[in-house]
Amino acid sequence: MSEELGLLVRDIGDAGMAEMSASPGLAAAVDQHVSAVREQVGTPGPDELMGYLHTFAEDAFRRGWWPESTSDWEFVRIVAVCWMLRGPGES
């Protein structure tokens, strides 16, 4: 992942996690995405999560996605993976 893409993904994750405390709908959507990621990749460790995030973000941007809404599918998936990377009690 390029440095620019990595910074954007980090910023999306940070913004989304901050917004989760004020938006129960976003928190619920993130929870659903966390479950979906776990179904897809099991109980991933940090390396697996980073690999997943890398592939997901690059594919999304290649398709022309750009973060314009905190409720779009790609935004919520990135926030979910970033939340998983922080681990329990660190968000």
Describe the structure.
There is one protein chain. With 91 residues, the protein is an all-alpha fold. 74% of the residues lie in helices and 0% in strands. The protein is built from four helices and no strands. The protein has helices at 3-20, 24-41, 46-62, 73-86. The longest helix has 18 residues, at 3-20. It starts with a helix and ends in a 5-residue tail after the last helix.
Quick recap:
The protein is mainly alpha-helical.
Draw up the topology in text.
Blueprint: H1 3-20, H2 24-41, H3 46-62, H4 73-86
Largest sheet: none
**SSE sequence, one letter per element:** HHHH
Unreliable residue stretches? none
Q: Level of helix content?
A: over 70%
Shape descriptor reads globular
Which band does the percent of strand residues land in? under 5%
Distance between the termini: 24 Å
Classify the secondary structure makeup into a structural class. Answer: mainly alpha
Oligomeric status: single chain
SS elements, strand count: 0
Task: State Rg.
Answer: 12 Å
Average residue-wise pLDDT? 88
What is the helix tally? 4
